[in-house]
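Can you give me the bound-state structure? Components:
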Amino acid sequence: MSMNRRDFLKVTAGSSGGLVLSLSLPGCAGIQTGYDELDGSWTPDAWLELTTDDQVYFTLARVEMGQGTYTGLTTLIAEELGVTPASIKPRFAPAAPKYRNPLYNLQLTGGSTSLATSWQPLRVAGASARMMLIAAAASVWEISPTECRAVEGRVVHPNGRDNLAYGRLVELAAKQPVPKAPSLKPREEWKYIGKERGRLDAEAKSTGAPVYGIDVELDGMVYAVVSRPARYGARVKSYDDTAARQLPGVLDVFEIDRGVAVVADKYWRARKAQDALTIEWDNDGALDASSDQVFSSYHKAADEDPGESERSEGDFDDAQQGAERVLEASYEQPYLAHATLEPMNATAWYRDGAIDVWAPTQAPDLGRIAAARVTDLSPDEVTIHTTFLGGGFGRRLTNDYIEEAASVAYRIRKPVKLIWSREEDTRHDVYRPAMLHRMRASVSGDRLTGWHHQIVGPQILDWYVRNAAPAQYPWAPKFLYGTLGRVGLMAEGIATPKDHSAIEGAIEYPYRVPNLDIRHTHTDPGVPVSWWRSVGFSHNGFAVETFMDELAHEVDQDPYRFRRSLIDHEPRHLGVLDRVAQLAQWDSAALEGRARGVALFRSFGTYVAQVVEASVEFGEIRVHRVFCAVDCGQVVNPDIVRDQIEGGIIFGLTAALYGNITLEDGQVQQSNFHDYSLMRHDQRPEVVVDIIDSNESPTGVGEPGVPPVIPALGNALFALTGKRQRSLPLKATV
Amino acid sequence: MAVSLTVNGRERMLDIDSDTPLLWVIRDELGLKGTKFGCGMGLCGACTVHLNGHPVRSCSTPVELADGGDVKTIEGLSQDGNLHPLQKAWVEHGVPQCGYCQSGQIMSAAHLLQHNDAPSRDDIVAALSGNLCRCGTYSRIVAAVESVVGDDAARPDREEA
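Here's the bound-state model for the whole set.
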């Protein structure tokens, strides 16, 4: 869905006789816009509200989970509106069709898309309002609007003396025609975009002030915890709550779809009562796989089914037959948990036939579906209030915690806060899928003649579509939800976009090779999976860039120069690769006892090259330094680009060194940070990030730092030890 | 049981189950939400507060052990409306991303500066290694702490301690 100017703002005659601006997107209802005499506020479009007392409110439709939308998107509006970013008051958007992400037709924050999809519409929104304010001032002064300028919340008269604050102009501005083609500021005139500036939420986040989901407080609120089956898909057979109900503060114990809920007046009392429950589970049909079985089933599937061809060029079989050498390798990657530091939680209140939900969610409109599914309510009767998110990384695109909170609230009819323990959060995550990659390459002399990549594992949309499909068809009655989910699946690529989650990063193989065959063998062991920071790129990056390293050593070439020789047709790839080699002083010898590895990978439209310098000390892998060159097009906030890339590097290293969710008899074995470790201060490498100067359209930076660092570390360990590790997490000794 | 606490300089009397972790008392009984729940086992440091001048993991400190004690939370760190030097440094260095762990990071750092005039980088890293950050803001945290080393305002309780 593309958003063009005409769809975006339309002028209609309002009931008050004044002019009302209404936003009209395909398939969306109009928004109440225009000048409100009672409030003294002007709402020119879906995003902005300007008041007579000079306040500017900006509705932030992409949630803030650390990736910086609160600052970055506000900066876009501020630049064109002609106010300082810090003077704008961002507000989190409610769930509404007008705030959907145009790439997905869902209101969700993910895929490193927030800035890229907001870049044009938000600047247009800001510019339109600015031009209408200028037109209003010009009409007061009876001069041409082209003679006036907008400066920090004021329209300035050409005489340089007179000026009018936006607040005084809003009533008049609302009556101006919406500009047909608002002119965006040229790059040379930008005051905020591309400049070094801090985050608008930094002070609040340094004083404990922001309200995350877990901080929501309502009068008369009670607390809920839920006991869920250890094995995915098990159901409650019976439970004994006699002891639990006798404990102080316990209000109710009852079964919900996903387990047994305990409600008490205090959180700790709910936890203690939960311990006093005895639950017998019906494991018929529940997950019973172990990690070993998952991988053996993948190998079996790979043997039996070559998979669907996702990209094919030349003839790999011919290349293989005519080649001097054929190299083969398989790579295995485990399930990974998201481990957001704020555990899953939601607060819900059912009253007067409707339910309000306060939640840290990446997908508010899917939260409405989740709440509607487990109640007799329609999605229209569910209001989602989005809070700050204590980390997202894809976990909060799945709204199972909203579903649970709504179930409990619907029954208890009081405001209720549901909090997951860390153990529950780890064991009931929706995981980054475990994956198998089988690689083959044909080589003649020192020339790469063929590349074959077979990806083996599930697709994420299979798990997601049951919520996403009804959200895209909100008019559909609830009994159709199941059908919509199935139709969404069957019509994949027609009614819904093709699911690239398994193959992204593999099908865009960028190196020059005449014969290429990339396939996906679709197999799903039944373990719930979801998007995880950088999604398919996270595992395909490891497979592609490790195998490239193996090939370089096979043909006896330097890993950097080998890649370089095969990518000189791709200037942006080449740009970051050469830059990182300079940064890391690739051609000088590594320090005694250390070795370096390189990787180059494009994800979400952003080009990243990294060099990792590592050693093994006292039986542990030590990552000393990571050098990174990034090309993400036009930079809106360089400081945030650097912190996102560095954060992605830490996230990727955490996966490479420690990330491993294992299953035994269908049960997740890990529970808390002692057995699902995250990188700590004392393990952190020094990180150097260099940003390529670019005029290209901006692309995302929340995720692209993650994929290359995993193979770059593996490649460094190979350079150090001469032993190639083909499964994750990496080990100090093999 | 009846519990008495001095929280951020204010005396509070509570009637509460004795095994309730201090964290939930601070958050739900006293309404100070800046201290966060992360793991419940003292592994992540998001719940760090000062109890009688020592940094403790409030998620795994039963309130009965804190009875009669002096508690300082992130809300009590700034004085007379002025941000603590660490908080200013956090803003200047653009430390927070999601921000969820930062109260705990700051409380750990504040304790270090209270007791060490000139911590080295290793001292800072050691003092903070119990505080996890999933967003990976570690380098900025250390830079922010280093920028405050030597600032007397970072040791407001020096004389009393």
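A couple of observations. The radius of gyration of chain B is 15 Å. Residues 102-115 of chain B form the longest helix (14 residues).
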